[in-house]
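User: Hi! I'm working on a homework problem where we have to compare a predicted structure to a textbook description. Could you give me the structure for the chain below?
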Amino acid sequence: MRIAIPKEIKVHEYRVGLTPAGVRELVSHGHEVLVQQDAGAEIGFSDQDYRRAGADIEALVEALFDWGQLIVKVKEPQREEYQRLKADQCLFTYLHLAPDPDQTKGLVESGCTAIAYETVTDAHGRLPLLAPMSEVAGRMSIQAGAHCLEISQGGSGTLLGGVPGVAPGRVVVLGGGVVGINAARMALGLGADVTIVDRSIERLKELDGIYGPHLKTCYATNEVVEGLVFEADLVVGAVLIPGAAAPKLVTRELLKQMKDGAVVVDVSVDQGGCFETTRPTTHADPTFVEEGVVHYCVANMPGALARTSTLALTNATLPYVLALADKGVKTALKSDPYLRAGLNVYGGEITHPGVADSLGYPFREPGEVL
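Assistant: Happy to help. Predicted structure tokens:
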């Protein structure tokens, strides 16, 4: 199969779809790989590294998209990218379609097959291709939030770990999934007062078993969320409903009651965000202030730590890329129900219920369209 790896064009996005080691594996299976010039240069993967792995290098993105049968990316395609896609191509990347009607319309009109990393599942119902970036984003949310709490960034001037004789900052994590547990872990490591909120009693029991009295756990009711957010110095939004828009857990009215200079980091921004005041930002201009609260809502947080993120992502995605290339896209999707759960768009049809429900499209079962 012909596999194309374009250079990411989203603002300050330096990750790349596959490392040279991943390319070498594909080439060893008899596949052809074309990498756009300088696709990994910013994170230490040179064109020469890719050539040594067996890839060819292409300067023109138009030629790369024309040539590829399987397009492997990191972030959702931008307008100029999805306008290049054709019906006989498969796109494998993060899509986050629910809050993005323009991208969804473009993919539907292209007729391509679009498989979303974030909705691929495993036998335990987990999201193995979302997990590595969720780990990075969760850990990064605390260092970003701690930075935003500095006076120079508009924050209240609170040190999360406190010092002897001064109480630590209060961190509230909304959601006990992969993002949430990694955020809590980092905040605890800094010495903060950390509370994690979730609607799963089993998950809260699990977290209590791991961290004991060091981590406070609360069942998520409106009253509990309101009380915790009101007192928080830093709130991390870590809520996920696979494929669907994130629920708005913190309203503008609640935000008005928070401390001036408090910080919210909305890791759920890719799915629309869990704060009513959320709007996507970039690494070039990551924050804004609403109702006296600093908002950090960067939609590609792991892109700031692009080398670590690319290595972790390739470890997770490579077996699926190999399956798609070795078996062919349709056969791979038919034979693996967990990969098939990642199918969001096929032949002009929406094939994920969360996307269809969020954007008002008719839903087609993947098994039917295949």
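For your comparison, note the following. The longest helix spans residues 306-327. The chain has 15 helices and 15 strands. Good luck with the assignment!
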